[in-house]
Amino acid sequence: MFANPLQKPTAKGKSFQDREAPHQYAISDYGYGKDAVKILHVKRDGPVHSIKEFEVGTHLKLYSKKDYFHGDNSDIVATDSQKNTVYLLAKKHGIENPENFALLLARHFMQKYAHVEEVHIHVEEYPWQRVSAEETGCQDGNGNCNYTNINNRARHNHAFIFTPTEIRYCDVVLRRTDPKQTVISGIRGLRVLKTTQSSFVNFVNDEFRSLPDQYDRIFSTVVDCSWEYSNTDKVLFCKSWNIVKNIIIRKFAGDPNVGTSSPSVQHTLYLTEKEVLDTLPEVSVISMTMPNKHYFNFDTKPFQAVVPGENNEVFIPVDKPHGTIYAQLARKDIASHL
């Protein structure tokens, strides 16, 4: 559930020896927390309501390991208390977006409990959108509809529709010994497909190869993408997240009328990551995974008496096995720290 920070912290001055360990062994990693805390927040501005539904995970790492070694629970902030904190801070401060809410929670745990060494907050946002006039059969957007016009489109004041096109998530890690706060934003499960302008040719040709050169194929993938910010002081998280999503779709699909050529999944992935770094200077490193979801042409040659001619219309979806392509692109001035 929890994403690992893309930039690994350096353990300066830390020894692997665990002085609390009663035996010859040392705990090399540890922590605890509450996962899958589900919360819905409703913001009411008169007749217009806005919602945010999150699934939140809170993990703490304490300085002491006496709970492990000696069964001493005196430093433990119960996971039930962590769950309550999620609801109480949402009530007190509201919810704007996953990143700001994760930062709010992480700073609270750090400031409230001096014996906490590290906090890791994970937030996933459930994709709700306002119901539009078109979806209810209302054509004029006034009178009986009583909708609010948002972005030049009549939308419902308080009704929403679940649109699971992708999942937005974030991870925030704060360490008491490290002034830099780690903020990772991400997109998971963005499935896309195009029916042409994808090829795969001139790859290794040896005795193990059975796949022919493919000069025009269906290209489909499920994009998982995460990126880390070098500085978050002036970041508009929602704007940045939408920019990354739009870049992913644009580099995959191209111009609506013309499209864009993809000689390999690797090349499309690299061009996407490069444009994100070119566009968003606050992003220091980006990682993407693009599994190749295959659609194989159904062979109609044995059935010429039934359907004569070539087949370029009917395909067999094959999700498994599939190729997986991934890469992480970082600015050169931080590459040595990855």
Label the CATH architecture of the largest domain.
Roll
Shape: globular
Strand/helix succession: EEHHHEEHEEEEEHHEE
**CATH topology tier name of the largest domain:** Urate Oxidase
Distance between the termini: 21 Å
Which percent range fits the helix content?
A: 10-25%
* Rg of Cα set: 25 Å
Strand content: 35-45%
Would you write up a description of this structure?
The chain has 338 residues and is an alpha+beta fold. Strands 1-2-3-7-8-9-10-11 form an eight-stranded antiparallel sheet. The longest helix is centred in the C-terminal third of the chain and has 17 residues, at 237-253. Helix 5 (237-253) packs antiparallel against helix 6 (265-279). It starts with 31 loop residues before the first strand and ends in an 8-residue tail after the last strand. 21% of the residues lie in helices and 37% in strands.
Features:
about 350 residues; alpha+beta; Urate Oxidase; 2 domains; eight-stranded antiparallel beta sheet; three-stranded antiparallel beta sheet; 6 helices; globular; Uricase
